[in-house]
Amino acid sequence: MALKNEVRLDDSGEDQNCWQDGLYSVTYLDEGESDSRRSSTLAVLREGTIFGSDEHGGVFEGLFATTRCGSAACVVLRLRVPPGGVLLTGERVGTAEAVVDVVGVLSGKGGELKGVCEIRGHWMGMRLRYVGRLPQ
């Protein structure tokens, strides 16, 4: 499967997907629930990279790549959790900073990017909503 960060246009001139560089709100959900808010994050997507921070002081950076047709995307993040922090899963990280890998698969539908991510063996729902453009 070839991965590529691009938006393709169909014959009508409309986006076939909603991947675009910009600012996104990210909400993590408990597995199987569509509206329960677990945590909110702001993320910047720019040219295949994604980075941001959450409301608890965690920061992340990683890669965001779409399939060639743009119907799905893979997100690979490295999350740094401050000492004494708690992961979305409820796991406490201890007295030292923790570095946690987060991997997710998303698809675009109805102006949202939705999917699942894995955090230390626990599956969480992930929803990204476009907030706005980045400064040029």
Main features:
Lipocalin; single chain; mainly beta; about 55% strand
- Helix share of residues? under 10%
CATH topological fold name: Lipocalin
CATH C-level: Mainly Beta
What's the rounded overall pLDDT mean? 78
Give the CATH superfamily.
T3SS negative regulator GrlR
Low-confidence stretches: 1-17
Number of helices: 0
Note the overall shape: globular
Describe what this molecule looks like in 3D.
The structure is a single chain. The chain is mainly β and 136 residues long. The model is unreliable at 1-17 (pLDDT under 50). It has no helices and nine strands. The protein starts with a strand and ends with a strand. The chain has one domain (3-132): Lipocalin, CATH 2.40.128. It has strands spanning 3-4, 22-30, 39-46, 49-54, 59-67, 72-81, 98-109, 112-119, 122-132. The chain has an eight-stranded antiparallel β-barrel with strand order 2-3-4-5-6-7-8-9. It is globular and about 45 Å long.
